[in-house]
Amino acid sequence: MRLGLNMGYARNRVEPRFELVGEADRLGYHSVWVAEAWGSDAVSMLAWYGSATQRIGLGSAVLQMPARTPAMTAMTAATLDALSGGRFHLGLGTSGPQVAEGWHGVPFGKPLGRTREYVTVVRDALARQPLEHHGEHYRIPYDGPDATGLGKPLRLQIHPQRDIPVYLGAIGPRNVALAAEIADGWLPIFYSPERAAGIFGPHLGEGFARSGDPSKGDHFDVAATVPAVLTTEPDRARWSIRPMLALYIGAMGARGHNFYHDLAVRYGYEQAADEIQRLALDGRHREAMAAVPDALVDEVSLIGSRAAIADRLEAWKESGVTTLVAGVEDLPTLRALAELVL
Question: Do residues 287 and 167 both lie within one domain?
C-alpha cells in the first residue's frame, strides 16, 4: 500500500502548506492530491506544489468536469505533467447538480454518459489524435445549428512523454463500475474498509469485466482518502472531521439527491444520515455536526495513538486500497504514517 497526502481545497483563504507537502516529498509519499469545490481551484495549487517538490506525484482529486471542456483538461494535464517531469495524475469527477448548475451554469443530467464521453475525448487528445468526437454530449468539431462551419479537427501541439493515468471520483454503484471499466484508478471518499468488499466489490468487478482487460483488477489503483489525526484525545479529534462529514452528508445536494447521504445509508447509518441532512438543510450546522455518529467518524478515518492507528491500518491494507491518501493537518501525523506504512 502506497501513501498519499490529500490537501483538500481552500474555502476562505488560500494558504499553501509547503511544510506538509515538502515533508511528504522528503519522506517518500507517493503523491499529493488537491481538490476543488467553489473556492480554490486544483490546477493552480498543484502547479504551486509541483514547483516546490522533486519526486512526489501530483494528483487532482478531482478536477470538476463541468468546469472545463475535455480538450482544456487534456491541455492542462499535458502541461502539468511536462512541467513536473511526468508526475501528474488526472483525477476527474462530475461534482453534483448543486455545483454544476448552481456554480458553473451547465446541465448536470446524464452524468454516466457524459463522463464516458469526456474521458474518451481526453484520452484521444492526449494521444495526439486529430480531435473528432460526435456524441450526445460533446461534438468536436462543433457542428450545431449555430456553428460557423470553420471548425476542423486539431491535434494537441505538445507531446506528452507518457500515458497520464486517469482516475475517477465515484461513490454511486454505476459510477464505481464505470471507473473500473474506463479509468486507471478510483478516488473514493468516506471509504469504509470493513464494508468495501460488500458494497463496492460487485461494482468494481462489473467494471473490470466490461473493460476487456482480464488483469485490470491487478493494476487498478484504489486511492482512497482517509482523514488522519495522531492524538491522545480522540473525542476532540473527531470534531475536526465532523464538519466535512456533516457538510457532505447533509448539504452537498438536496433531499432525495445527495450521493454522500446515500452512501451513509448504504453503510447502515440511515437514521443518522436523515437527521444530519435535516439539520444541515435547515441551517443548523453545529447540530448537524453533533449528529454525526462517533462510529461513522471512526469507520472512515484514522484517529488515535500511534498504536491505535497502526492497528487500524491493517483493515485498510486488507480492504483493497492500493494508495492510502491521508488527509493530514500536522507534521507529527504525517511522519507517523510514513513510519507505519512506508
Answer: no
Looking at the fold, whether 290 and 319 belong to one and the same domain comes out as: no
Q: Is 268 left (phi over 0), alpha (psi -120 to 50) or beta?
A: left
Q: Please tell me the total count of domains within the chain.
A: 2
Q: How far apart are CA 309 and CA 303, in angstroms?
A: 6
**Amino acid sitting at position 51:** S
Q: Are 167 and 296 found together in one domain?
A: no
Q: Are 243 and 131 contained in the same domain?
A: no
Say if residue 60 is in the same domain as residue 165.
yes
Do 320 and 290 sit in the same domain of this protein? Answer: no
pLDDT at position 45 over 90: yes
Buried b (16+ CB within 10 A) or exposed e, 42-81: bbebbbebbeebeebbbbbbbbbbbbbebbebbbbbbebb
Reading the block at residue 272, the C-alpha cell is 443518522
The Cα–Cα gap between 306 and 232 comes to 9
Q: Measured between alpha carbons, how far is 17 from 14 in angstroms, rounded to an integer?
A: 10
Domain range spanning residue 257? Answer: 232-303
Alpha carbon distance 158, 330 (integer Å):
38
- The pTM assigned to this predicted structure is 0.97
The tens digit of pLDDT for each residue in 108-123 reads 999 999 999 999 999 9
CA distances (Å), 17 to each of 10, 303, 329, 330, 332, in order?
11, 21, 9, 10, 15
